[in-house]
Inverse folding.
């Protein structure tokens, strides 16, 4: 791995070839806000050492300083100090960030880059016209409302059954990256099915846990939710799934809607209270763990740390599977060991880490829709490794990653099932 080249904090700014006046806090509206001052404090922690460069997916793709963490920090500093005007070009460089946070574990200065990028996007959105702010909030609100998922799922089903999908193909529209991606993703949407946890009077004094269902995960990972419920109950848990629970808020926070994200967290805080909560979508667990008061645990970790009754071990057979480590699990929760420890309970199973697990697959929440070409480029090597391994199962704990890798594998002609580790465990536990 090549050593990072020397860097001065103005390198990324100078690449814009814009004359820079002396720093003067207060030249623009951003500089006077408390949010801006907090962002400047975070940004000032960066010493521009460059240790982040080999770990940043967009920098590795483009070899452009403005596409690196330290370059983006310099751009944010330039914007907040009034040395740079807001522009489409600057917005593109900041928007290209996946917020995978691979830079954080390797940063010697412990820069909270994810927090910095969330704040920068909040200020960027605030500078947009009101209609665009409203459109962003409405779109993300629709995607993250579990009650509206059946509507979206029915629309997707109508698209495929009505002939519209065939028409889009005949017109060549599916060759357009974003339309082609949405076409493939639409096949993964299904109306949520009801889950029936054990009635309280049948569980006695069993330990209790609440299951966090999420929003998009509730419509695309129904099998995971059902498997989680079955495995937890077989381990003796009494599972509760409050119907009034909602989105964790991550999709809003990473798109500049911090207030909306906090509202969703506050709602879930009220719903779950002090109860223990298990989540199967690692991005949701990461959001709740970092920003809420909820006592949340990722389900692989919960299952690994739980005593398994004699005779309940999975009935495994010699097989190989591939393991994808999502950025939410690797860089935020920092507990991918729980995935492998859970899979180790399956006798004869060979769990092979997917090549390039340290690099984002390109899903990154809504990123795969907003930047489909980059998302595809980041998945290419992972799909190539899947082809080399010739496995039939890939496990991952992230909802978006599962959708992205499944559609990429399908487009590459691979017969690979993408599932959550708990689904594999559920399949191999002999029913009582």
């Amino acid at each position: 791995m090549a050593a990072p080249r020397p860097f001065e904090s103005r390198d990324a700014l100078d690449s814009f070839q814009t004359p820079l006046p002396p720093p003067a806090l207060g030249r623009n509206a951003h500089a006077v806000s408390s949010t801006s001052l907090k962002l400047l404090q975070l940004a000032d922690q960066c010493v521009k050492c460059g240790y982040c460069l080999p770990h940043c997916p967009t920098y590795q793709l483009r070899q452009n300083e403005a596409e690196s963490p330290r370059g983006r920090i310099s751009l944010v500093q330039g914007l907040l100090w009034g040395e740079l005007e807001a522009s489409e070009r600057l917005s593109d460089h900041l928007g290209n960030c996946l917020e995978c946070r691979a830079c954080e574990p390797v940063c010697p200065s412990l820069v909270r880059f994810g927090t910095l990028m969330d704040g920068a996007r909040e200020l960027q959105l605030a500078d947009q016209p009101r209609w665009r702010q409203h459109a962003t909030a409405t779109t993300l609100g629709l995607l993250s409302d579990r009650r509206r998922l059946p509507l979206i799922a029915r629309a997707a089903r109508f698209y495929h059954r009505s002939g519209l999908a065939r028409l889009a193909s005949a017109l060549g529209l599916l060759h357009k990256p974003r339309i082609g991606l949405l076409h493939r993703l639409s096949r993964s949407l299904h109306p949520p099915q009801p889950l029936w946890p054990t009635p309280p009077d049948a569980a006695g004094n069993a330990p209790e846990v609440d299951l966090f269902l999420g929003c998009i995960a509730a419509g695309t990972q129904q099998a995971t939710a059902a498997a989680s419920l079955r495995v937890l109950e077989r381990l003796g848990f009494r599972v509760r799934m409050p119907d009034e629970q909602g989105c964790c808020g991550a999709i809003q926070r990473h798109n500049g809607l911090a207030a909306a994200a906090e509202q969703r967290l506050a709602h879930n805080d009220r719903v779950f209270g002090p109860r223990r909560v298990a989540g199967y979508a690692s991005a949701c667990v990461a959001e709740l763990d970092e920003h809420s008061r909820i006592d949340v645990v990722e389900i692989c970790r919960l299952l690994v740390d739980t005593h398994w009754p004699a005779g309940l071990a999975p009935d495994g057979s010699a097989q190989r599977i591939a393991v994808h480590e999502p950025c939410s699990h690797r860089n935020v929760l920092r507990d991918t060991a729980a995935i492998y420890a859970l899979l180790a309970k399956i006798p004869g199973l060979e769990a092979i880490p997917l090549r390039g697990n340290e690099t984002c697959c390109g899903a990154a929440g809504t990123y795969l829709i907003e930047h489909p070409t980059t998302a595809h480029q980041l998945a290419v090597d992972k799909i190539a490794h899947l082809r080399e391994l010739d496995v039939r199962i890939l496990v991952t704990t992230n909802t978006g990653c599962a959708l992205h890798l499944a559609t990429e594998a399908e487009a590459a002609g691979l017969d690979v099932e993408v599932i959550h580790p708990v689904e594999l465990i559920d399949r191999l536990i002999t029913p009582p």
User: Anything to note?
Assistant: The two ends are 52 Å apart (CA to CA).
